[in-house]
Write a structure and sequence with these properties.
The protein has about 130 residues and is an alpha+beta fold. It contains four helices and five strands, in the order E-H-E-E-H-E-H-E-H. It has a five-stranded mixed sheet with strand order 2-1-3-4-5, covered by helices on one side. Helix 1 (about 35-45) runs parallel beside helix 3.
Amino acid sequence: MSRRKAPAAQAAPRCTVTVCRGCCCGTAKVPGVDHAAQLAGLKAELGAVARVRAVNCLDACEQANVIVVTPSSTGRAAGGRPVWLGLVNDPDATADIATWVRNGGPGLAEPPDILDLYEFSPSRRVRRAVED
């Protein structure tokens, strides 16, 4: 009798949506935003197609609330790179991000044009800490 487990079914590659919830993002320092609802909504909408995780601080406080969308392995192979989005303090922006990720995310789907207004490039040090 073998005790080896059958190989698990290979899960489809998934984007990772990293939501900053540290010293500024997700706090009263950014007023007028239901931070808990933003994170819960992303988890509810994307849980089946992406990994949604909250992290303590992405060190881009001047851009609070920050969300980083990292491509799936398939998206990366197609040329997708992590996309940093800042000042995501509007439910419509969060919905646009969710739609884009459901459609495949970086490398696989074009983001809605409006997300160009939210995209920023963090310092190399900060970027390396999150993207590696």
